[in-house]
Write a structure and sequence with these properties.
Blueprint (H helix, E strand, L loop, with lengths): L4 E3 L2 E7 L1 H18 L6 E6 L3 H11 L5 E10 L8 E5 L9 E9 L3 H11 L5 E9 L12 E5 L5 E2 L15 E4 L4
Parallel strand pairs: 3-4, 3-6, 6-7, 7-8
Antiparallel strand pairs: 1-2, 2-10, 4-5, 9-10
Helix pairs in contact: 1-2
The structure holds guanosine-5'-monophosphate.
The site of guanosine-5'-monophosphate has 15 residues, from strand 6, helix 3 and strand 9.
C-alpha cells in the first residue's frame, strides 16, 4: 500500500494498515469481552460507515449471548420548526433494561455521538457505552470521550475500511488519510 489515491479530486495516502487495524480491533474486543463477562449486551452498528469495523469487531468478540442490530441515525421530515431532526431508526429489539454498546466508525466533534446517546436513553436501557474505530480528539466540541477507541487520529479526513467520501472508497481494506490538508 504505497500508492496515493485520488477520490473526488482529493489526494489520500496510506495511513493505517490492515494488520495494524486488526491488532487494535482485537485489543478493543478483549476489553469489551472482559468488561461484559456474564452479560448479554446488544451491539448497535451505526450504518453506513461502521459496517466493516462492526463485522470484524463482532466476530472477534465471539460473545455468543450478545446480539447485534443495525441502525441509522437519520434526519426525518418532522413538523418541528427548529429545523433538522435526527433519530435512531431501525432498532427492532426492545432495549429496555439491556446493556447497549454503540459501534461507530468515527467520532469527530462528538455532536452525533452525544445526540445519539441522548436519543437512546429515552428507551431506558440499563447502560450505554460507545465503541469507535477512530477518534479525532482535537476536533471535539463536546468533551465526549468514547468508552472504547481503536485509534486516536489527527483532525484530517480519512477514507477506507467503511469510511467514505461521498459514498466512495468504503471498500478500501486500509485507512487512507487526506494529504492535501496537511
Ligand atoms: P461528529 O458529529 O462527531 O462531528 O461527526 C461524525 C460523523 O462525521 C461521522 O459519523 C462521519 O460520517 C463524519 N466524519 C467525520 N470525520 C470524518 C472523516 O475523516 N472521514 C469520513 N469518511 N467521515 C467523517
Amino acid at each position: 500500500m504505497n500508492e496515493i489515491l485520488t477520490v473526488n479530486g482529493l489526494r489520500f495516502k496510506p495511513f493505517l494498515r490492515v494488520d495494524t487495524i486488526q491488532e487494535q480491533v482485537r485489543r478493543v474486543a478483549a476489553e469489551i469481552r472482559n468488561d461484559y463477562e456474564g452479560k448479554s449486551p446488544i451491539f448497535l452498528c451505526v450504518l453506513n460507515g461502521a459496517f466493516v469495523f462492526a463485522a470484524d469487531l463482532y466476530r472477534e468478540l465471539a460473545m455468543t449471548n450478545s446480539k447485534i442490530q443495525f441502525v441509522k441515525y437519520s434526519s426525518y421530515e418532522g413538523t418541528n420548526t427548529t429545523g433538522e431532526v435526527k433519530q435512531v431508526i431501525g432498532l427492532s429489539e426492545n432495549v429496555e433494561g439491556k446493556d447497549i454498546i454503540i459501534i461507530e466508525d468515527i467520532v469527530d466533534t462528538g455532536l452525533t455521538a452525544v445526540k445519539m446517546i441522548d436519543d437512546l436513553r429515552k428507551l431506558n436501557p440499563a447502560s450505554i457505552r460507545f465503541a469507535t474505530l477512530l477518534h479525532k480528539q482535537e476536533s471535539s466540541k463536546t468533551g465526549f470521550v468514547p468508552d472504547y477507541i481503536a485509534f486516536s487520529i489527527p483532525p484530517l479526513f480519512v477514507v477506507g475500511y467503511g469510511l467514505d467520501l461521498d459514498g466512495k472508497a468504503r471498500n478500501l481494506p486500509e485507512i487512507y488519510i487526506n494529504c492535501d490538508e496537511e
